[in-house]
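Worked example (supplementary).
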Amino acid sequence: MTDAAAIPAPTAAPARWQDFIVLLKPRVMSLVVFTALTGLVCARAPMNPVLAGVAILCIAVGAGASASLNMWYDADIDAQMRRTRHRPVASGRVQGADALALGIILSLFSVGMMGLAINLLAAALLAFTIVFYAVVYTIWLKRSTPQNIVIGGLAGALPPVIGWAAASGTAPLNAWLLCAIIFLWTPPHFWALSLYTTSDYAKVGVPMMPVVRGAASTRRQILAYSVIFLAAAVAPAFTGLGGRVYLAVSGLGGLAFFALALRLFFSRAGDAVDERAEGLYDVKPGAKHARNLFAFSIAYLFLLFAALLAERLLVLPVLRP
Amino acid sequence: MSIRPPESDEAAKARRRRSIAIAITLGAFVILVFVVTVARIKSHVPFQPY
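After joint prediction of all chains, the assembly is encoded as:
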């Protein structure tokens, strides 16, 4: 926390319980739950459904704990950025100490419950994920290197491995392949977003790639990462993890992803950011290619994991290659 | 010794709602521990036909 003065004093209005829910980033939590559930189902290990639900709950709460710790530490910069200035701590609705306490309590609960109810491997992976996100990414990497979201992306990529470990007590290569897909998805996803929010990151001194290396270099790296990511995205169809449905979804979606990354590469997105743009999606026409890739990347990742889930839960074995 | 300013009605209501939310969460935690205990015991006891 570099600039405590940037955080507004607590408002006269007291914190509502809903503010503490917002503190847990429910939308991010839902994506974490979805990918963790996919890992758990793909493990194909018999599991008591109640314990499976508890494992998913622990992963969700762990993600919420990480978010709370992140909002506690980053309140000073959150308060100055359009995308984050309405967050509970940044806006003064929740005190930083409360967010810190909530984050610590939920971390202890989620890891402890995972260890007692499920298994130690899943608990250890969950603990590593929380510490990696809250300490390695939030406190260390985010403000010190343009590779922040590349390395920090590991925290967001681990939930399928935790889900797999919760179900089977092991973490085989296919589990790590799911991790690799999310890990390699993160740079094109976040750099596309940062291309049209550059001024915010520059203002608060966060060395996002477009701020440090410029928009052209960022567009080039987005294209390079997209190629590697798309190769990883199709890979499960050849390792026994995904079937024909997955191959079709990953292949066709991958082509669309590559086309958007290519259009972004040849665009001038990020070269000039409109300071007047207030909303996340209000961008200058030149930056629309960045916004399109950002939006499609979310849908594509969702479709990849939905295809794996559908093949495991719904589709008949005859459709599998 | 500091004198606390009187609490407004709105603040009192918000504090009460937070307290209720914490009570519900703690209650849910107790139920969760019970359910997990039962599920763990069941998954370790093989089915015994009559």
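Two points are worth noting when inspecting this output. Residues 288-313 of chain A form the longest helix (26 residues). The radius of gyration of chain A is 20 Å.
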